[in-house]
Every structure is written in C-alpha cells, then in structure tokens.
Amino acid sequence: MTIRVYNTMTRSKEEFVPREAGKVAMYVCGPTVYNHIHIGNARTFLSFDVIRRYLMWRGFQVTFVQNITDVDDKIIKRATEERRTPAEIAETYTLAFRSAMDELGVLPPTRQPFATQTIPAMIDMVKRLIERGHAYVADGDVYFSVRSFPGYGALSGRNIDELESGARIDVDERKQDPLDFALWKSAKPGEPHWPSPWGEGRPGWHLECSVMSEGELGLPLDIHGGGSDLVFPHHENERAQSEAATGTMFARYWLHGGMLQINAEKMSKSLGNFLFLKDVLARYPAPVIRLLMLQTHYRSPLDFSDARLEEARAALERIENLVRNLRWVGEREPEGSGVPRPALERLSSAIEGTRAKFIEEMDDDFNTAAALASVFELARTANSFVSEHQGDIGGVERAVLHSAEELVTDLLGALGVDIAPETASSYPPDVVQVAAELAGYQGSDPQEAVRALLAARDAARSERNWAAADAVRDGLEMLGFTVEDTPQGVRVIYR
RNA sequence: GGCGACGUCGCCAAGUGGCAAGGCAGAGGCCUGCAAAGCCUUUAUCCCCGGUUCGAAUCCGGGCGUCGCCUCCA
C-alpha cells in the first residue's frame, strides 16, 4: 500500500516516494514572530502536524524542520511602534508561539532554526546566485532576476508576462524587471543589519527558507508545506532561488493547506477579522480544536465559528464516551456466559475493517474526515454490541472489546487526538465537605468521599428514597461529576 | 482584468462513472425511578441548463453564486 499526496506542482495526486526509503525530510514554513499567531496559522500547523504524525505512525522516520523568521519588515515596524528592539519583539513572540503550539499538542520540530542565525549561509547563497547570473546588485540591494530562471511560475501556474500585465507591482527603478525580488536589502538607519559584500544589510523574505531547508535537510526536500497563500510569491520565489543556486530540484512534493475563514472570508491580519490561537485555547481544549480541523480535508477552506467548535466538542464527546464505555466493560469481571459466535465475529471483523478503512483514507492524501468517519462507524458497532449483549460478556468478549478500545485510541493518537484517561487523582477537595453533609463521611480523602457518597445514594435508591438519592447526584454534579447508572452498576466521571 | 478552487440533507462534511459515508442539530421510540450514556427509526433525484455514456454528484460545454491568489499574509 502506498500513500498518495496532492502535489501543488503537478496539480494532481501522486504516489509518495521519499528520496530515501523509510525516511521523510519535511519542511514547513514557520511564523514571522511579530505577533501572536492566529487560528488560521494554527490550522496550517495543525494540518502538517497531522501529516507528520501519520507518516510516523505509518513507520517513516520523519525529520521535521520549521524555521522561525526573526528578522523582517513587520518585526521592525512592530518594534518601532512599541519602542522595543526587534530582537525583543522576536523573542517575545517566539516564546508565545512555542507555548501555544505546545498547548495545542503540536509536536515540536526536529529542528527549528532562526533566520538571524543563518545569515552567513544566506550571504553565501546570494553570492552563488550572482556568480551564476541569476542576481544583480543595485545600490546595496541584491535582486533575483526572474527572467533568468526558465521555470519561474511553474509552481503557482502563472507566467511572467501575464503577471506583468496584471501588474499592481510597484515599479522600482533599480529593478531590471518589475517582478524581480529582493535577496538582500541595504539597511536603513536603526534597522538590524549584518555585514555583507554589498554593504550592511539584511536578508529579503524567501531567502531564509531556501537556506535553512537546504542546510538542515539537503535537497531535494521530500515535502515542503505551508498555507496556500504562500504558493505565490513565497514558495515560487524560494524554489526559483534554490534551484537557480544549486541546479538541483528543490522539493519533491509541495503540499498546501486551505485557508481558514470566518464568516466565509479569509481571516487575515489585514482584514482585522482574526482570532488569536491563545484566545481560542482559553475557551476550548486543544482536542476540540483539533477535531474541528480534522473534520474538514486539509486542502479545503474551513469556516471557523463557535457553532462549529460546539459541534466538534459534541463529536469528541462521542468518541470519549465510546472509549469510556469500552473501558468500563473491560474493567468489570466477566460474568456472562458468552455471546453467540456470529455476533462476536461481526464485531471482530468490524474492528479489523476500521483499521483498514482508516489507513486507506489517510493514505489517500490524508483524508482525515473520511478516516474519522470509520471510527464513528466502529463506535456504533461496538456500542450496539455492548448494549445488546451486556449480560453475556465473558472473557473472550472482553478481550475483543479491549482491542476495540486500543484501536480507537491508537487511530486517534495517529491524528494527535489524545483521549484523556480518567484522572481519579485530581478530584476536588470540596467533595469531602459534601460527603460529610450528605453521607456522614468523617475522613478527608476525596476518593473515599466519592465512594461514601455513592454508597449513600445506593442505599437511598434501594429504599426508593429518590429525593435523597438525587440530592447526592446533584451535589456531585455541582462539583463537576457525572453520575451514571449502568447495568453493571453506578459509575462516576469527573471532568 | 488574469489565474485557480469550490457549490452534496436544517448546519458541517466525505465521496472523480455503477444502489449518496460520517458528525452536529431536530422528531419519534427503547432502556432508566428520573437522568446520563447507549441503541433503533426518520429527513438528499448532489446550484441551474444542455451534452457524452447502458449508467454522472462524479466527465464535457454554458450560466448563476461563493471563495482564494495576483500586495504583507498560514
């Protein structure tokens, strides 16, 4: 079985064959650290986190490199506004970025180079481009000559002449062609600067990704990823620089994620309709946000809203309940005499079928929505099995149900969704007080207190004293517990 | 103006030639002392018009609508 990916370069799905068997060299454009990242940035990083995790799950050794762009016009602008140095701005938002990614559950990159620590290699690439006739110096600036690179436009599907006629490009006298872009910019007073053969200056956008990806991974990269708004000009220019400088293919597969929208419009800082990731994380747990993203294919536009977050929350609960139900059955002593063989075999084959379907869908350009559907179908099958046969669960059945539980957590884990285990250790201390009032509990241990409350409720129920029983349940629910009476007895969930 | 993507149930969404996945929400029912969880039942000639085909949501042409890129953008 092979994995197929949609390659922007060829506009088609292709079989994924890495340059070295079993290993994947992956580069995803990281943030320019001039502000907190927004939920649209987060979508892209989440999409590539899922791709990376899935490739790992499928047995590839993935080297994942993501840059931090810590020198840029926007950082300088922000620094001026806040009367801080660009380095301070960059540091502040680098730390914010890392902690937000961590909270979102995005795996840290294998390596995360900084643009400012790669300046000599950038200067070196600019030199190579000048030597090869792909760049020229003008007044302390260095420009890349797009006409010197025959494949320019191939990635984004445009040609130079059309771009020029469409032109909203500022005409700069120093450029030989309006589409030429800066490799090196001479520094104005007060701007960060580094010495170079062309005078004090700083690198242009695009250059850092070319240099860092090559430096960390070597060429060609297997996967180069980013949001679809980076296709032009950023990735087009990166590719032109790198291939012109090295004569080697830059990236084997170009993957681009769809835009996140709010009210059917792209969210962007310039439109002012953006949400910071940190603010969304303050209201919804990371797995809810991740599940919302997973329910749409990574290349499609995704409309983001509170309503969709609520839906995702409910959908995640369905999966969590499934796992909880399976664990609950698995932890009981098997008492039943067994389930008819055909029913058990249907369950077993559903479990195997789910794994196969999940892999088939994910192998097809990371179709997370369809892969998730296979898990939901298993939920129905396993839940009905339990509800139909709950009195007959024996050792064999228990083992099969346990394998279903393991499969669900494994598959969701492959997508980066951790199904939270029950954490009995973190019961709130207030429960002791409630237990003292309602159950005459004398001790100080929250877990014992809960047990005492449940025993008191049980006693009340057997006397058909519903008021007393419900008082216990209400007391527990006020503290965040959910009390459920199952055919196997009462269980309590704390979240 | 140029290039590109998309239009599938009330909402979200998968599905690129052969009986239209899944999630959320709604309705009815089962289970329960009541709940919770769960189960069952229930809602789609796939934007419109033509064409190709034995057969089209899926391919082709036209129309309408939405969005993205072309300028910093994930």
Structural features:
alpha/beta; Rossmann fold; Four Helix Bundle (Hemerythrin (Met), subunit A); 3 domains; 4-stranded parallel β-sheet; RNA-binding
Low-confidence parts lasting 5 or more residues at pLDDT below 50? none
Give the oligomer, counting copies of the same chain as homo and different chains as hetero. single chain
Please estimate the helix content: 40-55%
Query: Mean pLDDT, rounded to whole units?
Result: 91
CATH topology of the largest domain: Rossmann fold
* CATH class division of the largest domain: Alpha Beta
Overall structural domain count: 3
Class from helix and strand fractions: alpha/beta
Rg calculated over all Cα atoms: 28 Å
Q: Could you give the topology of this structure?
A:
Layout: E1 4-7, E2 12-15, E3 23-28, H1 39-57, E4 61-66, H2 73-82, H3 86-104, H4 119-131, E5 135-138, E6 141-144, H5 160-166, E7 181-186, E8 201-203, H6 207-217, E9 221-227, H7 231-246, E10 251-257, E11 260-262, E12 265-266, H8 277-283, H9 286-294, E13 302-303, H10 306-331, H11 341-363, H12 368-389, H13 395-414, H14 430-439, H15 446-462, H16 466-478, E14 481-486, E15 489-494
Parallel strand pairs: 3-4, 3-9, 9-10, 11-13
Antiparallel strand pairs: 1-2, 5-6, 6-7, 7-8, 11-12, 14-15
Helix pairs in contact: 2-3, 4-6, 4-7, 6-7, 9-10, 10-12, 10-13, 11-12, 11-13, 12-13, 14-15, 14-16, 15-16
The protein binds one RNA strand of 74 nucleotides through helix 1, helix 5, helix 7, strand 12 and strand 13.
